[in-house]
Structure formats: structure tokens, C-alpha cells
Design goal:
Elements lengths: L4 E4 L7 H11 L6 E6 L4 H12 L2 E8 L2 E7 L2
Parallel strand pairs: 1-2
Antiparallel strand pairs: 2-4, 3-4
Amino acid sequence: MNFDKELDVRGLVCPLPILRTKKSLADMSQGQILKIIATDPASVIDFQVFAEQTGNQLLSLVEMTGEFLFYLKKK
């Protein structure tokens, strides 16, 4: 999937992945896509809730070998 910016939050636990995501999204334009790489299993639920609460669209969630890839489209 194409993306405009990548954020690596591997090794960080809640709430840091979400806080770093919010900061990254603030620097992006509407419709741009942010790719996030995380290792915290709780981030799966965290990013789903974050997308619902903020109106940003969670385009994709992929789990691979202990890492989670999220693609968020900025509202």
C-alpha cells in the first residue's frame, strides 16, 4: 500500500504509540496516509479505538512476526 509518511513505534507501549501517531498526523494534510509499525499487542485495539474516536480511517491492519502494521488515512 502506498503511504505518505512512516512512523516506527516498535518497542513502545501504550500510550506512546498513540501519542506519537497524533503528533505525526498533526503534520500531515487531509487524505494523506500514515504507516505505523508497532510491536505492542495492545496497539491493535488502541488504533481501532483511536480511529473511531478521531474520525481518521484505519485502512489496514496487518500482523506479521510480532509486528503490527497500521495504515491510517488522515481525515
